[in-house]
């Protein structure tokens, strides 16, 4: 009995000693991160343990009443955490007046807590303040090495945004493998959102749930898995799609993600002896036929009809009234340039340049493909939108150096105007605008039977990326060469560009008509004799003139353009037949003969 009591006492002493050592390390780390300049500016007095910011402080001195915040009675660690959290919020441009800080201190003192991360939920008016301050402290003390032991990762520790949740993966070996894969993948993200890693973990969690429910060992033994477990998971996804609990798009995405995950963990050596997935069979993998094909929408693309785009442009003053002139300028640039939303909302102040010939050029960064200093020719009207926005943002932040200023700065927590507008805010404002003008997305059309009817456009089709697809479709319809369109869209290959536009029925009809026009009928009666530019009403010998030569020259240029487009893309498009070399040679010879005849 005495031995047991002694052992328990030793355990308690060791735990207390470890906790004390951790608190000492925590205190030393936070004290090293506190800046003396901030403490002086904020009015911190260590002798009286009070914080008295001046009323002129842009973020701490906003209250009209008492300015002093007394931290006496709190532990040294808790005081340091509070001071560091206030410093972090001030650096981020977030306001925290003395009255809110006093309320939070009273809450902490009443519950006798020793750390912000252990504080209970406060009243509603203090909840956001406590959560953000505790998060700032937690992130300051975390490192990628310590974060990897958690089942929910705060991606800010890795320099990204959001979180990755591994709690849906119940098998310990699979969760460990997923974490090892994420450690390898996260440093390779150029985007701040880590959407690929999150999508991958969603697919792995789905596979984990299937193993847990279907296998007697709940999938805890990797060597016991087989191709049958993959097939069972695939059948489960197919059933979920048929029962409308999973969309076809999500089914395809999850299948692709799990396939890549299983392939990459083998390439990284995680299935080798000693690895977290040691013993996983080579047949636990997805093959080509397992991944469903993407459904192609043949009825319409993702571009907006001309009349819908015209309605949006006419209603841009509504967007300006709702969300400000900056948001209007941003949407105007999306319509005019077809850039990705991230490329425009993250534009720096200096993004407008002039070519050697004097025409305006937009200088931006293709974040998706990691291609900085991309140059896009724009019109003078589009350049004026940028100039107007530069004037607007300069008036908002007159003291910020232009080289640090964002062209489209966020509204809150952005004292200097250096932080760009968040994508979530832009999406929310745009959705609100579209919902406001939804009743205007109608037009009167005449049916095949001649009966007039009202056509309505679904506002759900109007998203930020619609403007990029519309930009591509307009250029394709205007006959922009494929290689030029690929450069305009900033794509590395034309295969990607193809997904942004479609061959419309009108263009296919023109192609068919162009092929049929030169065909001759040997038995045609007089008056129907075929000629290169149509039908001859009087097929008797006659002279020629310059007008006919101009038409034939234009026809030759069109044939040459069709020929170049066909072989520049190396695509087999059954709707377009390229002109033959013989046809081009004959037309050239005819033009040459006419030039010789005419004076």
Structure write-up:
The chain has 599 residues and is mainly alpha-helical. It folds into four domains: 2-141, no CATH class; 146-290, no CATH class; 306-475, Orthogonal Bundle (hpI Integrase, Chain A); 505-535 and 545-599, no CATH class. The chain contains 22 helices and twelve strands. It has helices at 2-33, 36-42, 76-91, 98-110, 124-141, 144-147, 172-185, 195-214, 227-242, 248-267, 306-314, 316-323, 325-337, 341-345, 380-396, 423-436, 466-477, 482-488, 494-498, 505-516, 546-569, 581-597; strands at residues 44-45, 50-51, 69-70, 152-154, 163-165, 352-354, 360-366, 371-377, 442-446, 452-456, 529-531, 534-536. It has a three-stranded antiparallel β-sheet with strand order 1-2-3. A hairpin with an 8-residue loop joins strand 4 and strand 5. The relative contact order is 0.04. The model has no long low-confidence stretch (mean pLDDT 84). GO terms for molecular function: DNA binding. Residues 520-551 are annotated as: Disordered. InterPro entries: DNA_brk_join_enz, Integrase-like_cat_sf, Integrase_catalytic. Residues 303-513 form the Tyr recombinase domain. This is Site-specific integrase.
């Amino acid at each position: 009995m005495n031995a047991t009591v002694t052992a328990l006492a030793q355990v308690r002493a060791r735990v207390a000693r470890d906790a004390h050592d951790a608190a000492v390390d925590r205190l030393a780390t936070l004290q090293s991160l506190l800046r003396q300049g901030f403490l002086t500016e904020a009015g911190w007095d260590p002798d009286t343990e009070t914080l008295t910011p001046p009323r002129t402080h842009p973020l701490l001195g906003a209250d009209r009443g008492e300015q002093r915040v007394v931290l006496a009675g709190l532990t040294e660690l808790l005081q340091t955490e509070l001071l560091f959290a206030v410093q972090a919020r001030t650096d981020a441009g977030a306001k925290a007046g003395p009255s809110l800080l006093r309320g939070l201190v009273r809450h902490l003192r009443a519950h006798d807590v020793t750390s912000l991360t252990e504080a209970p939920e406060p009243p509603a008016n203090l909840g956001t303040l406590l959560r953000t301050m505790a998060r700032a402290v937690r992130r300051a003390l975390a490192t990628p090495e310590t974060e990897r032991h958690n089942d929910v990762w705060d991606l800010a520790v890795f320099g990204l945004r959001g979180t990755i949740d591994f709690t849906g993966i119940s098998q310990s070996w699979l969760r460990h493998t997923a974490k090892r894969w994420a450690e390898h993948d996260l440093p390779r993200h150029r985007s701040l959102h880590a959407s690929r890693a999150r999508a991958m973990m969603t697919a792995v969690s789905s596979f984990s749930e299937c193993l847990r429910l279907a296998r007697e060992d709940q999938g805890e033994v990797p060597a016991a898995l087989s191709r049958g477990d993959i097939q069972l998971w695939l059948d489960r996804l197919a059933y979920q799609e048929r029962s409308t609990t999973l969309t076809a798009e999500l089914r395809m995405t999850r299948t692709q993600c799990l396939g890549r995950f299983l392939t990459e963990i083998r390439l990284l050596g995680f299935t080798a002896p000693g690895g977290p997935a040691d013993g996983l069979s080579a047949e636990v993998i997805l093959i080509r036929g397992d991944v469903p094909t993407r459904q192609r929408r043949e009825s319409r693309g993702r571009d907006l009809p001309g009349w819908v785009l015209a309605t949006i442009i006419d209603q841009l003053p509504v967007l300006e009234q709702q969300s400000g002139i900056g948001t209007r300028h941003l949407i105007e640039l999306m319509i005019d340039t077809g850039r990705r939303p991230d490329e425009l909302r993250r534009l720096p102040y200096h993004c407008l340049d002039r070519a050697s010939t004097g025409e305006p050029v937009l200088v931006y960064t293709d974040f998706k493909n990691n291609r900085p200093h991309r140059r896009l020719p724009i019109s003078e009207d589009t350049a004026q939108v940028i100039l107007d926005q530069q004037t607007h943002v300069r008036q908002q932040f007159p003291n910020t150096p232009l080289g640090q200023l964002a062209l489209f700065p966020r509204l809150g927590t952005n004292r200097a105007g250096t932080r760009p507008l968040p994508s979530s805010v832009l999406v929310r404002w745009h959705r609100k605008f579209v919902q406001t003008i939804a009743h205007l997305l109608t037009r009167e059309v005449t049916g095949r039977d001649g009966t007039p009817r009202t056509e309505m456009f679904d506002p759900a089709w109007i998203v930020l990326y619609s403007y990029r697809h519309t930009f591509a479709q307009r250029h394709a319809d205007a006959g922009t060469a494929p290689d030029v369109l690929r450069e305009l869209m900033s794509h590395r290959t034309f295969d990607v560009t193809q997904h942004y536009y479609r061959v419309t029925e009108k263009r296919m009809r023109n192609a068919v008509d162009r092929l049929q026009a030169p065909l001759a009928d040997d038995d045609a009666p007089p008056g129907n004799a075929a000629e290169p530019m149509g039908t001859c009403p009087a097929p008797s010998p006659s002279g020629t003139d310059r007008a006919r030569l101009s038409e034939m020259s234009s026809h030759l240029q069109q044939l040459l353009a069709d020929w170049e487009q066909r072989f520049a893309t190396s695509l087999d498009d059954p709707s377009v037949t390229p002109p033959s070399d013989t046809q081009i040679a004959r037309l050239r010879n005819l033009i040459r003969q006419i030039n010789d005849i005419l004076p």
